């Protein structure tokens, strides 16, 4: 039993450069993902849903075919897809299991899982296991980003810069003020929008903080109203022209780092952990949460 709050989360988040490199090299497993040109859906719940959004944006923008992302409970069964990619750390999430059972024999499901002994492994048509990225902390870090590293490599992206940027983040120190804001708004464009949603979720889960997330352009259509002194607007990746000046005019702090957005999420992981610990919380066992959502009945 660990005695230091967030000990598992700290060990797991700092291992990300290593797990990303391992996933990027898994060429045989990447070949199990739907072929270029296939019309696919990517499903997951919570963190996995946000990674599904990023993968969908990456795959479609790279010209590999129409790609939709859904939370598993909102999957549109009336639509036709060539394949479904189901992302789940535990492989026990009720909604994902029910979806897979429902489409069995109609639409092939490729499961990307952390726990390769889980029930999903037995009912999916193909399985990509990432057990080396599985986690003990309830708050996900490396499994989500390692799966995204696998997806990025599968559409032809190099992970070298992301890995280098993430290691530089981990080797450096963070501005203490990043963990001390009253409120956080996370922004992203394209595939980084899923990362913005994930960043907000991480901060909420780990430290019970007030966080929101938006498309960078959408932020100016109302949500910027909450920007104020003592609050942070954090852009992952490139920002629209003029946004920084507009945010700073409110007195809020605009945060943006010129690194791969996935590496900037690693920075946020550490900020979230530090904020949680400073508040006397343990992100390995956050309030009201469990490792997997398993529904009764």
TrEMBL record:
UniProt entry keywords in alphabetical sequence: Repeat
InterPro entries linked to this entry: GlmS/AgaS_SIS, SIS_dom, SIS_dom_sf
Chain ranges of the SIS domain: 30-169
Recorded superkingdom: Bacteria
Protein name, entry field: SIS domain-containing protein
Taxonomic lineage from the root: Bacteria, Bacillati, Actinomycetota, Actinomycetes, Micrococcales
